[in-house]
Amino acid sequence: MIYEQFAFWGRAAPGMPAAVAAGSRLTYAQALRWVDNVASHLRAGGVRPGHRVAVPLSPEIPALLCQFALDRLGACSCFDATGEQPWVDWFVTTHAPSSPRQVRVPFDSLPAADDPRAGAESQIAPHRWQPHESCRIKGSSGSTGMPKWIHRSYMSTLHGLETSRNMMALGPGVTCAHSLGTAGPAATLKTNAWRTGSTLALLSAKPRELVAELASLHVNLLALSPGSAQIILSSVGNTPPSLPDLQTVYLFGARAAPQLADQLCAMARVVMTYGSTETGNTSCAVLRAGKAPGHTQVQVRPESRVEVCASDEDGRGPVRIAVVDPACDGYVGDDGVARPFTEGEPQWFYTGDRGWFDRLGMLHITGRHDDVLNLGGIKLTAAELDDLVAGCGLTVEHASLNAMDAHGAETATAVVVMKEGHTAQQLRSALKKARPTITALRILVAQQLPRLPTTKLDYVKLRENLARGVRKPD
Asked: Contact 244/268 with Cβ under 8 angstroms?
């Protein structure tokens, strides 16, 4: 069904743009012919239904062509995989194969869209997927930065795509774009764009040029992580730009501080999402300027089956999400076998977040359950301290966490990149004024914070840097 939904637009609206970039355009007819041509190359190279195939993540269009071609053939797309994973059957390459597990697809010399050789596979019936067949394996860093591999069945993959599609309101006439690096939501957005007849706008990786690109490509929907949003706003002096075509900003991957949410609300309708790569379930809520809470707040749909395992008297506790296909989905081990996310409870995925439901059924995410910081006279989650730091308006970026001090003790720490002309001592004074009960906080100044390809903060790298003592306390 994933391939067939895309192929529908190639036949029903062949001239409709599937992708646009500065000075270039790809129609759905061209995209369909090229997907079928890529499928022909993969099939000739030995790819068969059930095989696991590593998909190149860039350039974006060849990666998307490859993914839909594998959906046509009934093979499992593996994202972020390298030659180190022994459970991958094939690795796509654009050059002559140098290993028995490589299959060549010459993306740079595919036949032109009007060449009869393009689409040679079109007479072969697409694979008829069964619900529990292996469909996706995704590399993820999660919230910790530790790499892991997530297996999703066809049923689970389709559920996740449908969940996101309903939330995004994609369709013909909608131009969408993302600035999410290689994050899972980026792949979901691109897949859904071509399943629904939307146009995918390809953006450069240069933040200072992004606003002009969004305007020239008439982007209606922009998917961002809070980290990307902060970088983009910083590039234009933190003044929300005027983008008349932009209707919706979707925030994926992490919570947004109230100050950032307010800036984005001045640009367009802002939707904050909450979900997990593991389950594919996604919930969302519209944020409003001046009313963004100090934590993520989302409306949970009943079909998402999100629960809070209340462990406190006030009903707060760990958040868990139902797994769509517990018989098949799970973390892939070195042996290539997918095992349930949670031992003893394969039907639930525990997110690692803490939260609570209010009387209206809104889920409030207050932070990670293991990120409670002891600040002397008060205890806050890392997210709550992040909001306090952001509210002072003295930093470019920052991260709050527990980290080992010189004596080997866990210490509440704020790692900050200060704005020009401001000091850590000024930040400490501002925090003390905002919360007088903060008496134990280590502030470390950095030139920049390490980030993952998904634009999330790389907390593993950050802790490694702190352990090496590369940053000095104020």
From this structure: no
